[in-house]
Specification:
Elements: E1 4-8, H1 13-16, H2 20-28, E2 32-38, H3 42-47, E3 51-55, H4 70-97, E4 102-106, H5 111-119, E5 123-127, H6 138-141, H7 152-167, E6 184-187, E7 204-206, E8 228-232, H8 241-251, E9 257-261, E10 278-281, H9 286-292, E11 295-298, H10 302-311, E12 315-317, H11 322-333, E13 337-339, H12 347-358, H13 361-377, H14 379-390
Parallel strand pairs: 1-2, 1-4, 2-3, 4-5, 5-6, 6-7, 8-9, 8-11, 9-10, 11-12, 12-13
Length: 392
Amino acid sequence: MKKHIAVVTAPAQGHINPTLPLVEELVRRGHRVSYATGAPMIETVEAAGSSGVELPMALPSVKPGMTMTVEAMAGMLEWMHGQCRSALPVLLERFEADRPDVVCFDMLTPVGRVLAQKLGVPVVALMPSFASNERVSLQDKLMPEGFDPTAEPLRRAEGLFAEFAAEHGLTGDLMPLRPVADTTSVVFLPRSFQIAADTFDDNFHFVGPCLGSRAEQDYEPADPDAPLLYISLGTTFNDRPDLYGTFLRAFGGTRWQVAMSIGGSVDPADLGEIPANFDVRASLPQPGVLRRATAFLTHNGMGSTMEALAYGVPMIGLPQMLEQAANADRVAELGLGRRLTDDEVTPQGLLAAVEEVAADEGVRANLAAIRAELETAGGAAAGAEVIVDACA
């Protein structure tokens, strides 16, 4: 029987991209998908085959090097609470009239859980980052070492979500990033990459990275005989002309063919003369570049990290925020690359680090083992099965 699946996700590429292959797979099987998110990502989710539902939802303003304090975390949680309150009436109007068989929600959009409980339908959590349970807390990973989780600003934010739940007669903890007890979860990581993986029960389905039609992208370097270095700081913290200038000095005129993505905030003309061995663009077809890359100088966003694992590319991590730092540390811990120290972010240090990691046979062997695991993790097909099985 064909099902109607509702998806509710924050309008962030790192959260939406992993879900798009699920949408493609579900639609290919004949199911109908309604995808609720903010306006900037509606066209993207509709291109995957879903019907877009525009929510009054945006992303918070963040800056490179932003220090995550208790107060800053509380402010972001309060902001998410406001987004939930604004989105719920739109979701109810749409889905009370067109009831879904299941609601899938992202860890930053607990309003999806509210919708499911109000409609009395099953729910599936979608996790593009580390999963959380009683032993592993993603919220803790986002905070500096030694922070107090019972601090007054965090208790205030938690109270807002508790009030929201009580107003609607709902049960369970609605706090974003918190463990979702007894809930079916699709995690876009291989189990071996998950922190404390042995503490997660069968409710958590580690399907690995999902690329879908994005895997069909390709990239042709100007010099196909030179080793290819891919450089990207992701889609959020990429307004870094200072770093791009350092990369140009580090790798210009070297043996490396360099593909460098700089985002839409930096004009390539402002970077000065671009060395002949560089291809600098606002964006690049990441799967296509990684398919040919020898090394990846990355911010270690989880989406980019997973795609590097899918193609077996060694990583040199330059994280721009605490969540990315946790990912970079896990990459280093598992021997899949290394994380740069602050004093290595010089032309000489960067070149030395890339050369070292690219030549490390141990890193290559560890990446090959992960790729073998991914062949059995199931990807989008496995995730689609979990969602359909959860339907009412």
